[in-house]
């Protein structure tokens, strides 16, 4: 038997073959990890590598607050008596129940099982006197009866119904109610057909709430609509021993004509929004172009553009005669004509260049004449 099999068998001290030193140290580390980590973290941990080399499995233990709350109550059976007749039936039921405990006896078994998620309500001679939690309960065969009430969260489908909105549009709505019992006594003895009553109440409330809204509000605010319906039903359901968890609107259906109309309206709305966006973009572009024109029309910008044009023209080979009719005084640089000439001379590829700058001939256009072989 291998060390792994010894460990799987529970690490018994009665194993016929001892563990190897390495495997024994691993098992001791595992035991130390489980016993040391559980009090600190409050988690049930299974240490040791998995078959696929995955992480260690960590399981959150069940807390008492997460379990089913206790509904057990005993109002006493002393007041539920009917004289000699009642005592006789109780005694007869006890005798029959005592014999019915045996498996082979054809008499009814007095012990009834209440499953988890349910509550047992015991009545004596038709009068309720005790509620019990899940487990095995003894019931007198002749004088007592037990009713089982489910306290788990339940989902009840509300049938599809046609509802008219405030703007006279007919829609079909499918919904679901999520609810659970909080008072088993009220749910069992306070109302007949609890689920059917909840469905009828939900249909009536949904018809009322949708009738006070326009179609657009019904479509866009489903959560708010469902919350409003749940709040209205909650008041009535509380009297029945029920708490409403939520109401969900599964689907909202329209007629074919209404669907086509809504689709056309949505299309036209998108087209209008696109036109508005395009118009705003054109306005913004016009503003930017206007600002650019104002900037380019300034004297400083015009002079910079003239200098850039002269520099680009001077890069070509051959002789050139360049007239620079610029207002040097406005530029604030007395020696700018010589600087321009030096820049053009340094960037020229070959040949000779002559720059003539008439004194104060502002407002004239620059004339550039390229000449070769002069």
Task: Report what the structure shows.
This protein is of the alpha+beta class and 374 residues long. It is built from 11 helices and 14 strands. The N and C termini lie far apart (113 Å). The strands form 5 sheets. The chain has a 4-stranded antiparallel β-sheet with strand order 3-6-5-8. A 3-stranded antiparallel β-sheet has the order 9-10-11. Among the domains are: 73-149, no CATH class; 153-259, Band 7 domain (Tetrahydropterin Synthase, Chain A). The chain is elongated. The longest helix has 41 residues, at 256-296.
SS-based structural class?
alpha+beta
Helix content: 40-55%
- Rg, Cα atoms, Å: 47 Å
How confident overall, as mean pLDDT?
74
Briefly note the CATH topology name of the domain at 153-259. Tetrahydropterin Synthase, Chain A
Run of helices and strands:
HHEEEHEEEEEEEHHHHEHHEHHEE
Strand order of the biggest β-sheet: 3-6-5-8
User: What share of residues are in beta strands?
Assistant: 15-25%
Shape: elongated
Total beta strands: 14
Number of helices: 11
CATH first level of the domain at 153-259 = Alpha Beta
From the N-terminal CA to the C-terminal CA, the straight-line distance is 113 Å
CATH homology-level superfamily of the domain at 153-259: Band 7 domain
| CATH architecture classification name of the domain at 153-259 | 2-Layer Sandwich
Largest beta-sheet characterization: 4 strands, antiparallel
Unreliable runs:
1-24, 30-47, 328-336, 348-355, 357-374
């Amino acid at each position: 038997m291998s060390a792994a099999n010894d460990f799987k068998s529970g690490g018994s001290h009665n194993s016929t073959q001892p563990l190897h030193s390495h495997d024994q140290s691993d098992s001791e580390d595992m035991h130390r990890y489980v016993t040391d980590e559980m009090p600190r973290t409050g988690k049930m941990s299974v240490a040791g590598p998995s078959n696929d080399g995955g992480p260690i499995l960590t399981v959150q233990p069940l807390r008492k607050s997460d379990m089913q709350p206790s509904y057990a109550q005993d109002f006493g059976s002393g007041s539920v008596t009917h004289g000699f007749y009642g005592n006789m039936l109780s005694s007869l039921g006890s005798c029959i129940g005592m014999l019915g405990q045996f498996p082979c006896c054809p008499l009814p078994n007095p012990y009834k099982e209440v499953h988890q998620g349910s509550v047992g309500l015991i009545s004596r001679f038709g009068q309720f006197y005790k509620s019990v939690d899940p487990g095995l309960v003894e019931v007198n065969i002749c004088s007592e009866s037990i009713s089982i009430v489910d306290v788990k969260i339940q989902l009840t489908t509300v049938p599809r119904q046609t509802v008219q909105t405030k703007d006279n549009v007919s829609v079909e709505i499918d919904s679901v109610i999520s609810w659970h019992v909080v008072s088993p006594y009220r749910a069992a003895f306070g109302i007949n057909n609890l689920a059917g009553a909840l469905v009828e109440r939900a249909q009536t409330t949904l018809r009322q709430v949708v009738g006070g809204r326009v179609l657009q509000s019904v479509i866009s605010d489903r959560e708010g609509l469902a919350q409003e319906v749940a709040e209205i039903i909650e008041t009535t359901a509380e009297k029945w021993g029920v708490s409403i968890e939520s109401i969900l609107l599964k689907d909202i259906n329209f007629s074919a004509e209404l669907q086509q109309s809504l689709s056309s309206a949505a299309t036209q709305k998108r087209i209008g929004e696109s036109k508005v966006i395009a118009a705003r973009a054109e306005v913004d572009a016009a503003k930017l172009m206007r600002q650019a024109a104002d900037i380019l029309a300034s004297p400083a910008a015009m002079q910079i553009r003239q200098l850039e044009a002269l520099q680009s023209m001077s890069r070509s080979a051959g002789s050139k005669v360049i007239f620079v009719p610029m207002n040097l005084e406005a530029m604030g640089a007395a020696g700018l004509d010589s600087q321009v000439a030096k820049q053009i001379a340094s960037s020229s590829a070959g040949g000779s260049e002559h720059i003539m700058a008439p004194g104060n001939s502002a407002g004239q256009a620059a004339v550039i004449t390229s000449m070769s072989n002069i």
